[in-house]
Amino acid sequence: MGEKQQDDSASAVKKKKETVANLEKLGQRLYDQMEQGEFPWVKMPSRSIENIRYNPDLRQYVLGERFVKRSARNIRHIRPLSQLVWTAFFAHKLSTQRKTSTLRDVYYSAQAYQMSFKDQSESDNVITDLETVIGLAREDFNVFPEERSAIFGDLTIEYNVPGYEGKRMNLTSHPDGLMIGPALTYSEFVKTSADKVFAIEKGGLFTRFVEEKVHEKFNALLVLTAGQAPRATRHFIHRLNKELELPVYIFTDADPWGMHIAMVIISGSANAAHLRDLTTPDAIWSGVWATDIINYDLPSDPLTEIDIKRLHELQRDPRYKDELWQREIKIFLKIRKKAEQEAFSRYGLTYIVDEYLPAKLEETR
Q1: Class of domain 3-144 as given by CATH
Q2: 51 near 66, Cβ under 8 Å?
């Protein structure tokens, strides 16, 4: 193992120890409070809209200085505080036993301990509260969403999950791409010949890129975001950019929702304002643009009222202040049209690879 791989492996071990230590510190604080005759309480950063602000230096949303306190002294706080403590217990169990769980699993696992959540949304929200309390992401304590993203390309990784330690795999080994699940998310990067990353919104285009050997023709790693990229996928893209120094190009549908998919990869979301390492600020939205609908005469659909409302929201969002984003929003509002990535198929199955892709790379380098 090379020096860099050793450093990465040591960093992963350190992060796991930090996770366990932070969870145990939370438990110790609660125990000490009760030992001293206090009602147990927890203080955490407020995630209210009023406490979320855009940081232009970090180029993402962050939490402000406001905090909230949950105390068993307040009868209204007993339920959410109990849920938080149980979730921390379950997270500690996962971390120390080196097990993983999905968000859905956490919701159902609570029932085995007679801990009730009214629905998964409530369970997910408490998990986010725990993130703010211990200062780490849910992925650090082994809780993940259902996998739906994938990666394909010449990257050799080395697993470090139990039973697979030291096992290596090249990510061209599966023609459908390899799921970006927990084991892959925290694997070590061994070697790659790629010099860029293409993040792709739609499965159809991802498959087309694999079939047309885009990974070889453009020396790229292909990442399927499958719509809005899950946090594990955004973290993985962040790692590819930071650790391997690979520029990232994002391809989405030409509509306000595609723009937002790209921006969340670049600058994150308000929902994750308490976390870092999920963004890739220098990633480039390479299309499909509103301009492309005009320049390539793409088959299109009319924007809906919801689309138009969303465009006006993006226009006011500080993340979209740069010239490219403002220009494309204005063009969308002017032409009142939207188009999908697959619209390029009107010119033949390989046109998007042979003509569009080289042109966009040249335009956005």
Answers
A1: mainly alpha
A2: yes
**Both tokens of residue 130?**
């725990």
Task: Name the active-site residue from 108, 113, 186, 347.
Answer: 108
Confirm whether 296 is a catalytic residue: no
What is the CATH topology of the domain spanning 150-364? Answer: Dna Topoisomerase Vi A Subunit; Chain: A, domain 2 (3.40.1360)
Strand order in the sheet with 155-158: 168-170, 155-158, 188-192
Residue ranges per structural domain of the chain = 3-144, 150-364
**pLDDT, tens digit, for every residue of 106-157?**
999 998 888 989 999 999 999 999 999 999 999 999 998 877 899 999 999 9
208-234, pLDDT tens digit by residue?
Answer: 999 999 999 999 999 999 999 999 999
The list of the chain residues with pLDDT below 70 reads: 1-10
CB atoms near residue 272 (< 10 Å): 18
Same CATH fold assignment for domains 3-144 and 150-364: no
